[in-house]
Amino acid sequence: MSRKLHTSIAASLLVLAVSATAAQAQTTVTFWHSFNNANGRALDEIVANFEAVHPEINIEAEYVGNYNDIVARLQAAIPANRGPDAVILEVTRYGLFADAGVLADLTPYFDADPLKDELYDYARQIGVIGEKNFIVPFNSSTPVLYYNKDVLARAGIEGEPDLKTFDAITTAARSVNETLGAEGITGIAAPGQFARWGLVMANGSDLIDPMSGEILLDDPKTLEAYEWMASLVTEGLASADGVTEEDNGRDAFLAGKVGIMMNSTGNYVGSRSALGDKLGVLPMPCNPDCAVPIGGAGIGIMATSQQDVQDAAYEFVSYAASPEANAIWFAATGYLPINKNSAELPVAADALASQPGIDVAINSLPHAHGRARTPVVTWMRTTEYDMWQAMALGQRPVAETMTQFAADTRAEAARLGN
C-alpha cells in the first residue's frame, strides 16, 4: 500500500471517528407540540436557530395535534413510558400532570436563569402552581374581537363599529344576517371555548376562581353569559356548524362568510393573510367588566427523562422564550410577546408597524387575568364542550345544564383532591 493511500485512509478514518464521537455526544430531546402550517414553520425556524447555537443538542420536534390531542396522547403514553422529553401544554391543563408528578419541577432552572427577569409578570405567573414552576411560557394569547370591515359596511355599519357590549354585538350581527343572509353570510361565528371563557369574565364571573378554586359554573353571571352565547346560535345569528366543530366558524370568517369572530390573538396572522385590509381587530367586549383570560401554552419537561436530557431540554425551553425567538414567534403568529425585550428587535418592530391590529391584545394586557389550573380544570374543559353543544343547539336549558355541570365538576374536584 502506498504511503499516499495509507495517509488518505487514515485521514478518512479520523474524520469518521470524530463524526461518530460528535454524534454520540449529541443529546436528543423529543418535543411534542401543537403547531402546524404557518405557526409550525415559525417553530421550525426557532428550532433551527437553537440547534445552530447548540450543535450538541438535537430537538426532535413532532406535531401531535391540538391541545386536547396532546393531553390525550400524553395520558396514553405515560403508562407505556413512551412520552416525550418536552411537551407543549395549555396553561390551564398542565396542573393535571404537575399534580401527578409527571412534570419536572423547573424552579431550580428558572430561578438561576436570567430569563426570569426578562419575562412579563403575566408570563412568569402562568407556569406556577403553589411555589413551584412547571412550565415556561412559549405562546401566550388573549381572545380579541375580529371583524370583516367589508361585510359590516355592506350591512350598513360604517367605520369602526361599537362592539363593546353583548347587546351591541347582537345588534351588529343581526344587521349582517338581515342584509346579507341571502348570500349565505352570517353575523357572527359561534364563540369557541377560549372566547366563551372570556365572555364569562367580561360579564363579571369566571368558570373556576383562579385563587380559591371555587367552581363558578352556576354563578348567576356565568349563566347570563351562557344564555347570551347560546342565543347567538338559537336565533340564527351564528351557524350551528361552528358549535359542533369550532374551526368551522373560524374558517367561514376567513372565507368572508362571517361578519364577527371572537378568537385567540394567535389567529391574527392567518386572518390578516386571508382578509388583508378588510380585517378589523377590537378588544373583547366589556359587559360591564373589561377582563380577558390569558391563554396559550408553555413548555414542560418530563420528570422521567434522564438528567442530561432534562438539562438539554431546559436549554431549549429557555431559548424559546428569549427575545430573539419570541420576536420571531410574535411577528409570524400574532401571539403575545412574553419577553420584555422582544418588541425592540427589528422583526417584532416591523410587525407592529406594518400589521394593523396586531397590538390590540398587547393593549388588553392590563385587563388580562390568569385562569385556574388545578387538576379538575382539564376534566371541566373537556366536559364543557358537550354542555355547550347541548345548550347552543337547544337540546337543554342553560340553567339546568350549568347547574348540573357545576355539581358534577365539584364532585370531580373532590375526587381528584382539589
Automatic annotation (TrEMBL):
Signal in keyword set: yes
InterPro entries per the UniProt record, alphabetical: Bact_solute-bd_prot1, SBP
GO CC annotation terms, alphabetical: periplasmic space
Signal sequence interval, chain numbering: 1-25
Key words of the record: Periplasm, Signal
Keyword Cytoplasm: no
Record localization: Periplasm
Family indicated by similarity: Belongs to the bacterial solute-binding protein 1 family.
Protein name: sn-glycerol 3-phosphate transport system substrate-binding protein
Naturally occurring in which organism (per UniProt): Devosia crocina
